[in-house]
Amino acid sequence: MSVSKKRVFVRKLAVVALSAGVVVSLTGCANGQFDLAACSPVFSEGSNSALVSADGMINSDPEARFPTPLVANDVESHIVSVGDGQQVNKDDVASLQITIYNGETGEQLISSGHDNPGLLVSVVDREPHFGEIAQCSTVGSRIATVGTAGDILGAESIAQYQLPLAEDDTIVMVSDVELRYPGRATGANRVPLAGLPAVVLAPNGQPGFTFPGSEAPSELAFSALKVGSGDALASGDLAVMHISGVEWDAADTFRDTWDGTGVPIPVLIESNETTDGGLPVGLAEALIGQTVGSQILVVLPPDVGFPEGSEPEGVTPGKTLVFVFDILGIQEQ
Fold first, then answer.
1. Which of 141, 256, 293, 325 is the most exposed place for a label (fewest CB within 10 A)?
2. pTM of the predicted structure, to 2 decimals
3. Alpha-carbon span 64 to 114, nearest angstrom
4. What is the 3-state secondary structure of 204-240?
5. Do 238 and 268 meet the contact criterion of CB atoms below 8 Å apart?
6. All domains of the chain in start order, with CATH
7. Is the CA virtual torsion 253, 259, 262, 267 positive or negative?
8. What pairs with residue 146 in β-bridges?
C-alpha cells in the first residue's frame, strides 16, 4: 500500500448561478443552534474514513493522505476537526469547500479551490450528498468522507464534473464547513399591504402566489411578510437570498431558487443605475434597509424594472413582475 496526494487531474468545482440581471457570490451568516447531542448524522464513522488524515489549514488545501488503494462499499464520514461555529441542521444551507480524491490512486480529482467562496448546498436528501454529509457538523469543521462515487456524487454529477470515475469507484472527499444559513426566512410574521398578491408558503418555505383579480399596480409596491432581527441591507452588500419571481397573473414562476437544487443565491444589493449588473432600481429601493431574516414581497412595474433587453429568461417585456425574497445572510467584504 502507498500513501499519496498526487494532483494530475485537478479542476475547479464550480456553482452555476442561474440568475439574470444580478451579480452573485457565495457567502453569508445567520443565527443557528448548537446541540450536537440532538442531531443525528446521516453517515456514520467507519474504518475507512478513519484512515484519512487532512492536516492542511481549514479553508486551504486539506493535504489529504490515506493508504491506497482504498476500497469502500458504504459511505462513511469522519469529523477530522471540530469547528466552534454554528451547527448545520437538516434543511439548512451550508457553504462548503470540497476536495475529491481517487480512492485507488490518491490523485486529487477536483476542488472548489479554497481561494474563492465555497459551494452553497442544501442540507437535504439530494445528489450529490454534500449537504447531508455536513449535517450535524459545526462551522469551522473539516469532514473526511469515503464511499463510492455513485453513492456520494451520483451519476449525473460524475458526468457534469467530467470525472474519470465509474459509479462503483471509491472516492475520498474532504469538506470544510465555512458558513451556515437557515433554509428559509425566520422573522416574525407581518400582515402585508392590501391589494398585493397573497402568498402562501409550502412546508419547506417555498412561496405560492394568488392574485387579487385586479389590474397590476402602476407604481412600485413592497411589503414585509416576515421581519427579521438581523443586520439591515445596505447598498453594495451581497445578500444571500431565496428568490421567487412571477409575472402578474401568471400561473408559473419564471425564476425560483426553491426548485431544482433548492439553493439560495447571493445578490449584489445595488442599483443598475450605479453599477453594471446591478438590480433594477425598483428592486434596489425595495431591498435596501430590509433586515436579515425578513421575507419581502415586491410588485415591480416595468418603468422601474429590468431595462429592455435585460429581462430574465421567461419574462415578457413590459410586464409587471412580482417577487418574494427570503433574506438569509450578508457576505462580509
1. 256
2. 0.83
3. 14
4. CCCEEEECCCCCCCCCCEEEEEEECCCCECCCCEEEE
5. yes
6. 2-181 (3.10.50.40), 188-330 (3.10.50.40)
7. negative
8. 76, 172
